[in-house]
Write a structure and sequence with these properties.
single chain; 231 residues; elongated
Length: 231
């Protein structure tokens, strides 16, 4: 049983983030529930690495004094599974925005798909999506994008240690990626399409690991709330 004092002194909570929730919404929800359950006026709650609203999976939530460990957790290696669709792109590189371009896929073979993954192993240069929460000149990049404004984005170096194609179903490509902090899987999907002389966008994404933390150990928001009511 986790007590009031436990939450204040610091806890690490593993949450399986549902689809269409922002990471910020999860943090706010858990903070409110903890405050209500234990009549706490103020408590620090934060997450160790954002997940996009259209992504599900592992969200590491820290409370109390454990929030000091957030930077450490954020810097750890992450694993994702997902699906990308070949032959079309979107401005956001995922399904947040509608398809804006389509490309031929007749030249793409299973062998070329498997071979192309090799280009992305190791340290690579990657451009973050314009539809992202990164800041430039005090504004989030997605604010520029939604306003139709063009903004210069600089590439960053990220490390990918594993990139495995797990299933090929027509134009739908399932994959598993192990990567460093700061890697955008949406950008990886977009770049993968370009490398195949076509296009691609992300249609599903799930974070499965952060360091030694595994999504199999995570619980839903509903389960967390139920557990709180029993404490």
């Amino acid at each position: 049983m986790i007590t009031r004092e436990d939450y204040l002194s610091g806890q690490v909570l593993l949450i399986d983030k549902p689809l269409n929730w922002t990471s910020f919404q999860v943090v706010n929800k858990l903070r409110w529930e903890i405050r209500q359950a234990f009549d706490i006026k103020k408590i620090k709650v934060g997450h160790a690495g954002t997940l996009d609203p259209l992504a599900t999976g592992l969200l590491v939530i820290c409370t109390g004094k454990m929030t000091k460990q957030i930077d450490t957790f954020q810097g750890q290696v992450k694993e994702y599974t997902g699906t990308m669709v070949l032959g079309s792109t979107t401005p956001s590189y995922d399904l947040e925005t509608e398809i804006n371009e389509t490309f031929s896929t007749t030249h793409i073979t299973e062998a070329s798909i498997l071979d192309t993954t090799k280009q992305f192993i190791g340290d690579i240069q990657q451009y973050p999506p314009v539809f992202s929460a990164l800041k430039k000149d005090g504004k989030r990049l997605y604010e520029f994008a939604r306003a139709g404004e063009t903004v210069e984005i600089k590439p960053r170096t990220v490390a990918i240690s594993e990139f495995e194609i797990t299933k090929i179903d027509g134009l739908n490509i399932d994959f598993r990626v192990v990567c460093s902090k700061g890697t955008y899987i949406r950008s990886l999907a977009n770049d993968f399409g370009k490398a195949l002389n076509s296009g691609a966008h992300l249609s599903a994404l799930r974070r499965t690991k952060i360091g030694d933390f595994d999504v199999d150990e995570a619980i839903s928001i509903e389960s967390f709330i139920r557990a709180l009511s029993l404490e």
